[in-house]
Specification:
- This protein is of the alpha+beta class and about 140 residues long.
- It has one domain.
- Helix 3 packs across helix 4 and helix 4 packs antiparallel against helix 5.
- It starts with a strand and ends in a 6-residue tail after the last helix.
- Bound molecules: zinc ion (ZN).
- Zinc ion binds next to loops.
Length: about 140
């Protein structure tokens, strides 16, 4: 999982902790970073969820810690990929995505049959996060 940096070097994907407002720690945020020029950017697929989370915190947040992988499917998958093989290469991540989508769809059907509206909404959100994917650049 990498992309080319503006400086010509390769930016590698890492799970990092983002500190917001000096108080809020958001762990396991997928971020591309370049060791040559120290540039870093948030993985585009998780940006809407990260900005959403931050906007919910408001201007004066309390000291707290979030696990970003608990509210974002991408971060969750990357944490899994990292735990599994210690690396986040693209084929491994693609396989995990496919497995995860299948599992979520199974759960979605189950939630529907139980008429559990809150669960259905949660699963819908997770499926949308994963379908928002443009891995290949
Ligand atoms: Zn660079």
């Amino acid at each position: 999982m990498h992309k080319r940096c503006h400086c010509g070097d390769i930016m590698k994907m890492k799970l990092r902790t983002v500190i917001y407002s000096g108080k809020v720690e958001i762990d396991n945020v997928p971020i591309y970073s370049c060791t040559a020029c120290n540039r870093s950017e948030v993985f585009p697929e998780v940006k809407p969820d990260l900005t959403g989370l931050i906007s919910q915190l408001g201007a004066e947040p309390d000291k707290q810690t979030f696990l970003f992988n608990e509210c974002n499917e991408w971060a969750n998958l990357l944490v899994e990929a990292k735990a599994g093989k210690g690396m986040m290469d693209q084929p491994a991540v693609e396989r995990l995505i496919e497995k995860r989508i299948n599992k979520l769809l199974d759960l979605y059907l189950l939630a529907q049959s139980l008429n559990d509206e809150a669960w259905i909404q949660d699963l819908k959100k997770r499926l949308e996060q994963l379908s928002r994917r443009t891995l290949r650049t």
